[in-house]
Amino acid sequence: MPHAPARPKAARLSALAAVALTAILALSGCAPTADAVPSSGDSGTGVVIEHAHGSTLIPKKPERIVALSWMTPDIVAALGVNPVGVEKVWGAGDSGFQPWFEEFVTTEYGSTPEIIPYAEEGPNFEAIKALKPDLILGLYSGITDIEYERLSEIAPTVPYIEGPWNPSTWEDMTRTVGKAMWEDDKAEQLISETEQMVSSLADEHPEFDGKTFVWGLTLNEGGTELGVYLEYDARVRITEALGFTSTPAMDQFLSTAEGDNWYTGVSLENLYDVQADLFAAWGSSAAEGEYTVQNKVVSRWEPIAADSYVIYADDAQASAISAPTVLSLKYVLPKYVDDLAAALQGTPTISGK
Fold first, then answer.
1. d(CA 186, CA 313)
2. What is the rounded CA–CA span in Å between residue 150 and residue 66?
3. 3-state secondary structure of 284
4. Distance between CA 59 and CA 48 in Å, rounded?
5. Is the model's pLDDT at 20 over the cut of 70?
6. Could you tell me where the DSSP H helices lie in the chain?
7. Residues 323, 5: contact at Cβ < 8 Å?
8. What whole-number distance in Å separates Cα of residue 243 and Cα of residue 204?
């Protein structure tokens, strides 16, 4: 079951973030997109998706799709199919759905999908089978070889392409789901429309151009390091697409990151060496955000001292910007852009519970 966006180990993470790290939700966007090519099979000409567990033949245009974990349900719905089943993900409201997804499918299809009951270990195979899917998509997942084999006995299954919990960029993920659904052209249209929205928002705010930023996390009580995200993280990428420029300290961040991590930590004693006009972050609560900006060291750091920061402790907002899709970006970007503009004028934002 998917969890919250990962928080750096170095930041002595809260319980919520620790769960996220266990899931290894890599938002790096560094994986290549899947190549989907025409193929012939017993069921006739179809589409083949190559992925980490092999390849999947999708012999005909799917109609009953189970969309597992983050992001995939948004893309499936936007491409013209209301999923028959989805999992409850982090950022969902009381209804069990993320707000932008629920609004879209209710308006477009008049109903919401069935929520697949949580299973302690791995996918809920029995519940998925009962939905009689003709395609199972789990690109943003940790589906193992054995789980993939069991799911494939139910229906053609596309798990992650490159590595567990690595969805690649939102554009590439949209293309992969589009190919699996036989909707390549519509996928490209959605990408184009979304990129145009981002470009238009950037054009409306020329003051963003050249302003430097750091995307990170709030401090836990007693924390001695500030968690920060690297240049290939989804949050960093979308902020750059709006006209901002990553901090000159990004090379330093990259040099301290471990393995394939998409985050690292900056010791508070070195924080003043990190140049930034703006700080954006997510946290577990508004109280945690307040604790961060009131920390005696952090409070004197350039963007915090200038009241130039945006901190989201609202689960839906943090989820939407952390795992962007063609639906979630429409939901979160207008507010995000307004908050960024206000922060540059010295009016900060801390939202959430």
1. 34
2. 14
3. coil
4. 8
5. no
6. 15-23, 72-78, 99-109, 125-130, 145-154, 170-180, 184-203, 234-241, 250-256, 286-294, 302-305, 315-322, 328-344
7. yes
8. 10
Question: How far is residue 333's CA from residue 348's CA, in Å, rounded to a whole number?
Answer: 17
What is the rounded end-to-end Cα distance, in angstroms, of the chain? Answer: 23
Which residue reads 């033949």 in tokens? Answer: 57
Q: How far is residue 44's CA from residue 307's CA, in Å, rounded to a whole number?
A: 61
Phi then psi for residue 221, to 5 deg, are -60, 125
Helices 234-241 and 315-322, packing angle to 10 deg: 80
Its sign, for the CA torsion 2, 215, 303, 250, is positive
**262-299 confidence digits (pLDDT tens):** 778 999 999 999 999 999 999 989 999 999 999 999 99
The rounded distance, in Å, linking the Cα atoms of 203 and 352 is 28
Residue 302: DSSP 8-state: H
Ordered by start, the domain boundaries in the chain are: 9-26+201-352, 44-183
Contact 284, 313 (CB under 8 A): yes
Integer CA distances (angstroms), 157 to 62, 117, 180, in order: 12, 19, 10
- pLDDT tens-digit profile of 129-167? 999 999 999 999 999 999 999 999 999 999 999 988 887
pLDDT of residue 90 exceeding 70: yes
Find how far residue 4's CA is from the centre of its chain.
9
Question: So what CATH class is 44-183?
Answer: alpha beta
> 134 Cβ partners below 8 Å, 6+ apart?
60, 62, 63, 64, 65, 155, 156
**CATH of the domain spanning 9-26+201-352, picked from 3.30.70.980, 3.50.50.60, 3.40.50.1980, 2.40.50.100:** 3.40.50.1980
CA 20 vs CA 74, 85, 284, 295: distances in Å: 21, 23, 12, 25
Handedness of CA 260, 263, 268, 271 (dihedral sign): positive
